[in-house]
Amino acid sequence: MDNAARNRLKAALAHSDWTADALSNKLFGTATYVSRVTTGRIQDPSPTRLQAICDALEVDITFILTGRSISPDREELINSLATAPESVIADVAEFVRQHGLVKK
């Protein structure tokens, strides 16, 4: 997680009703996890824990990590693919290749 992502996470926390310690206690039963992420003492938080933090702050994890927002349609597609069988993912990947939708 880079400094820009940490800064976006800090801003989301500042605009919420949570303190880092209170959010950490609620989510993980420890008072310091969120503050260790936002200060960089935890360089690469687990995706599951980062998603839990983002959900509690009502901020999109994609925005935190990249600074970009995604449309609801793209989010739905990504979430659907995340739980799809491997054969469906392969079919979608082939469709994307056939239609020239892959960046070169």
Record the SSE blueprint.
Elements lengths: L2 H12 L5 H9 L4 H7 L7 H11 L3 H6 L5 H11 L3 H13 L6
Helix pairs in contact: 2-4
Descriptive overview:
The chain has helices at 3-14, 20-28, 33-39, 47-57, 61-66, 72-82, 86-98. With 104 residues, the protein is an all-alpha fold.
Written as H for each helix and E for each strand, in order along the chain, the element string is HHHHHHH
The end-to-end span amounts to 26 Å
Give the DSSP E fraction (strand runs of 2 or more residues): under 5%
Category by helix and strand content: mainly alpha
Largest sheet: none
Share of helix, binned: 55-70%
The number of helical segments is 7
- Rounded to an integer, what's the Rg over CA atoms? 17 Å
Shape: elongated
Looking at how many chains there are and whether they match, the oligomeric state comes to: single chain
Number of strands: 0
Low-confidence stretches: none
The pLDDT mean sits at 91
Task: Name the descriptors.
mainly alpha; single chain; 104 residues; 7 helices; 66% helix
Explain briefly what this protein structure is.
The chain has helices spanning 3-14, 20-28, 33-39, 47-57, 61-66, 72-82, 86-98. 13% of the residues are buried. The protein is built from seven helices and no strands.
